[in-house]
UniProtKB/TrEMBL annotation:
It is an enzyme of class 2 (transferase). This is non-specific serine/threonine protein kinase. Pfam families: LRR_1, LRR_14, LRR_8, LRRNT_2. It is a single-pass type I membrane protein.
Length: 816
């Protein structure tokens, strides 16, 4: 038999099929129904119904021989694990009126042959993996009441032939990639109660013809690409209780005629491009439970008539351009759970009447222009779980009545102009999870029992004027996830006032008056990603146990009184991105293990007493964008490996050290660098010509060194100040206040090469000439002496002769 054969093909037939045995009648099997039909002279019993929803059947429907079951009228196999294609053989069942195969794993196309099922009244194929187009042949199923192809992968347009299904009461084609426009022929489906086309890629205008669907109760066209205005004809659908048009490209204004839809329970138009004001006629929708108009471009004020919607649970108007005050009449919405007016241009004060809405769970008024004080009546909202008033211009003090909000979990009032003290009653908020009061002008002490419940996770009171000690309850507040008390005047010893917080991820205590040592408790907060203790009065050394914070990304200990060396253990923090130890009293050298900080983007150790050589290993921190090691006592050369830091963009500052030697040519590889400060060192030689390759450079300070030669030309240094280069030994350049260079760098380079070649020759030739002159002089003098000697000798001889001949003469010619 066909049913037993099908069972045999299934994987582990379910218990519900255990009664399907060869020796029993099918009419007695679980899930099978039979009907006696007249056939000839007898009335045999034949199988007409298969109903096994959610039975856990795993197999292929194509293995069932439908031609052997010609009288089947009802098949319900939804919510099983059927797979394979949808068999076209089902079309042989001419008596079939009900077919539901939803929530299976069927794939392939919807067979064209299904258009022959002339008796079919309900076709359910939702939540499968069907593909292809909706066959136009389905338009032949004129008896059909429900067509459900929701949640598949069916594509293409909606066939206009669907408009032939004049008996259709439910049409669900939602959550498919259908394209094209809604066929105008759907306006023929005058018996339709529900039209679900949401979650497709349908486009074009919403057709006016839908206004003929006078029985329609639910119209859901959301999450498509519909454009154009809301058709006025839709406002004829007076039986409608649900209208969802959200997440489209709808333009124009909301038709005032929507106020005629008095049966409407849900109106959702959010995330469109709707303009214009909110029609006051919406106040006629007395049955409305949900009104969602958020994320549009709605202007004008909130009409007071919305106060007539006394059944309203949710009112979402956020992210529009609404102006004017909050109407007092909204205080009449006694059934309201959520009021969201976030991100508008609402002005005026918070009306006291909102304190009447005692069922309110969420009140969102942030990012507006609200002024005035927080009304004490807000303390009446005993069911309130969220209060958002941040980024307004609210003044005055925090009312004590807020301490009565026993259900409050999240209170965000940051970025306002609040003053005064934080009431001690805030310590009674036992359900509080998040408290955000930053960027106000609040003062005085924080309530000692601010963490009175065991759920408190987020505390942000930064940028106020709070003073006094750290609240004692924080030490045992082990539920903390984030704490931010930056920029106050809080005092206390951090080694005694903070405990171990297993879930803490961010700890920002900077810019207070905290003292003491860094506690081992902080080292036990192993989930920390941000630790900011900067600008306090913390003493002692940087403890090696900080290396236990393996998730740490930001570590700021700058502007304290820390001493000692930088512990090499800190270099095991592989996730560290920003390390700021500047303006302390640290000494010693930079640990060579710094090369392990492969994710380091910002390093600032300036303003300490660090000394020794800058390690070559620093060049291994390839993600560095900013490097500040200025105002220390480093000596030796600037490592050429610094030129490997290709990501260095924001700053390289090594000024005010004792560095010497020539500047490495490799610095020219830092093409993204914007700020380079080498001043107040003892660098010598010339500025490398490779500096001209640093095309992003806007500041180059090499003043107070022993540099000479021309300053490399770079486009961004054309307006440079001479103070960046002077004083030095002999720099020159085309900058105001600097001596000019008499030759271009290229000419000077060529001249230097020529001089280097000619100088030895000139020296040798000069030596030869000088030597020759010396030899000539010596020889000349020697010859003259010889001549003189000869003359003297001759004279003496002549004198003797004269003396002998004229003995008595008084003179001799030799004396002449």
């Amino acid at each position: 038999m066909a049913l037993l054969h099908w069972k045999a093909t299934l994987a582990s037939p379910p218990l519900q099929m255990s009664s399907w045995q060869e020796n029993t009648r099918p009419c007695n099997w679980s899930g099978i129904m039979c009907t006696a039909i007249r056939h000839g002279r007898g009335m045999p019993w034949v199988v007409t119904n298969i109903s096994l929803p959610g039975a856990g059947i795993r197999g292929q429907l194509g293995e069932l021989n439908f031609s052997a079951l010609p009288f089947l009228a009802y098949i319900d196999l939804q919510n099983n694990s059927l797979h394979g294609v949808l068999p076209a053989s089902i079309s042989s069942l001419s008596s079939l009126s009900y077919l539901d195969l939803s929530f299976n794993h069927l794939k392939g196309k919807i067979p064209f042959e299904f258009g022959g099922l002339q008796s079919l009244m309900q076709l359910g194929l939702s939540s499968n993996r069907l593909t292809g187009h909706i066959p136009a042949s389905l338009g032949n199923l004129t008896m059909l009441n429900y067509l459900v192809i929701h949640q598949n992968m069916v594509s293409g347009p909606i066939p206009k032939e669907i408009g032939n299904l004049v008996n259709l009461q439910g049409l669900q084609l939602s959550n498919n990639p259908l394209t094209g426009m809604i066929p105008k022929t759907l306006g023929n489906l005058t018996q339709l109660n529900d039209l679900y086309l949401y979650g497709n890629q349908l486009s074009g205008p919403i057709p006016q013809e839908l206004g003929r669907l006078v029985r329609l109760q639910s119209l859901q066209l959301q999450s498509n690409d519909f454009s154009g205005p809301i058709p006025i004809s839709i406002t004829n659908l007076t039986k409608m209780n649900t209208l969802f048009l959200f997440e489209n490209q709808i333009t124009g204004s909301i038709p005032p005629e929507i106020g005629n839809l008095t049966m409407l329970n849900e109106l959702s138009l959010y995330t469109n491009q709707i303009t214009g004001p909110i029609p006051r006629e919406l106040g006629n929708l007395a049955m409305l439970n949900e009104l969602w108009l958020d994320r549009n471009q709605i202007t004008g004020s909130i009409p007071p008539e919305l106060g007539n919607l006394t059944m309203l649970n949710d009112l979402y108007l956020y992210t529009n351009q609404i102006t004017g005050p909050i109407p007092l009449e909204l205080g009449n919405l006694l059934n309201l759970w959520i009021l969201d007016l976030f991100d508008n241009q609402i002005s005026g004060s918070i009306p006291n009447s909102l304190g009447n809405i005692t069922k309110l769970v969420e009140l969102h008024l942030p990012q507006n222009q609200i002024t005035g004080s927080i009304p004490k009546e807000i303390g009446n909202l005993m069911n309130l779980e969220y209060l958002g008033l941040y980024q307004n211009q609210i003044t005055g003090s925090m009312p004590k009545t807020l301490g009565r909000l026993q259900s409050i979990q999240d209170m965000q009032i940051f970025d306002n102009k609040l003053s005064g003290t934080l009431p001690q009653e805030f310590g009674d908020l036992i359900s509080l999870v998040r408290l955000g009061l930053s960027r106000n002008s609040l003062s005085g002490p924080l309530p000692a029992n601010i963490c009175s419940g065991d759920r408190f996770q987020y505390l942000d009171v930064s940028f106020n004027m709070f003073n006094g000690p750290i609240p004692s309850s924080l030490k045992t507040c082990t539920s903390l996830v984030r704490i931010d008390i930056r920029s106050n005047k809080l005092t206390g010893d951090i080694s005694r006032h903070f405990g171990v917080y297993p879930q803490l991820t961010k700890m920002r205590l900077a810019s207070n008056r905290l003292s003491g040592h860094i506690s081992p408790n902080i080292g036990a907060c192993t989930q920390l990603t941000v630790l900011n203790l900067a600008q306090n009065m913390i003493t002692g050394s940087i403890p090696p146990f900080l290396s236990k914070l393996s998730n740490l990304v930001y570590l700021s200990l700058d502007y304290n009184h820390l001493t000692g060396e930088i512990p090499p253990e800190i270099c095991t923090l592989n996730n560290l991105y920003s390390l700021n130890l500047s303006s302390n009293q640290l000494f010693g050298s930079i640990p060579t293990q710094i090369e392990k900080l492969s994710n380091l983007g910002y390093l600032d150790i300036s303003g300490n007493r660090l000394s020794g050589l800058i390690p070559e290993e620093l060049g291994a921190c390839m993600k560095l964008q900013s490097l500040k090691i200025n105002n220390n006592n480093f000596s030796g050369n600037l490592p050429a490996a610094i030129g490997n830091l290709a990501a260095l963009q924001i700053m390289l500052d090594v000024s005010n050290n004792n560095l010497s030697g020539v500047l490495p040519q490799q610095l020219g590889k830092l093409e993204m660098l914007e700020y380079l400060n080498l001043s107040h060192n003892q660098f010598s030689g010339s500025i490398p010509s490779s500096f001209a390759s640093i095309v992003s450079l806007s500041t180059l300070d090499v003043s107070y060194n022993d540099l000479e030669g021309p300053v490399p030309t770079a486009r961004l240094l054309q307006n440079a100040s001479a103070s960046w280069f002077l004083p030095n030994k002999g720099l020159c350049g085309n900058f105001s206040g600097m001596p000019p260079c008499y030759s271009t760098p290229i000419a000077a380079h060529k001249k230097g090469k020529i001089l280097g070649f000619l100088l030895p020759i000139v020296l040798v030739m000069g030596f030869v000439i000088v030597a020759a002159i010396v030899v000539i002089i010596i020889l000349t003098r020697k010859k003259r002496r010889q001549q003189k000697t000869l003359m003297i000798s001759t004279s003496l001889e002549q004198g003797d002769m004269a003396k002998s001949t004229r003995h008595n003469s008084k003179t001799g010619s030799w004396l002449l």
